[in-house]
Amino acid sequence: MADAKNKKLTMTMQEYQALAKTIEPPRPVAVNCVRAFVVGGFICTLGEGLMKLFQHAFGFDEKTAGNPTVAVLILISVLMTSFGIYDKIAQWAGAGTSVPVTGFANSLCSAALEHRSEGIVLGIGGNMFKLAGSVIVFGTVAAFVVGLIKMIFGMGVH
What we know:
Blueprint: H1 2-8, H2 11-23, H3 29-58, H4 66-82, H5 85-93, H6 95-98, H7 101-114, H8 120-153
Helix pairs in contact: 3-4, 4-7, 7-8
């Protein structure tokens, strides 16, 4: 695949690519994986702690504690994004911050902050939902398919 791309490049471009490969520092893949694991694990541990807090302090059961837990994690993520903290952590941790629900909240909040000067509807709303639209559509279609499978096979219908 890389050879096919190189065939389309001129000799100057190929020389540049070769030079860039010699100068570019090696990527610390193992360190990046550890950072992502630690930060993603911390976010998930925080979520688990919040869930236990909602169960024990506020009387939620295991099923109902999930909703306020996710809401609090999203709120924390949005606040940290607004203050510029989340992006600094994300640069250091990489994928560890983008996989949990906090990463999705961060990306929506970042889009809203970036385009707020264009107005509420066209700026914030339009650009936030460019990003969220595919996720919302996929979630809706997946929920429909799962519901259809459950209905056809009669699993868990009570």
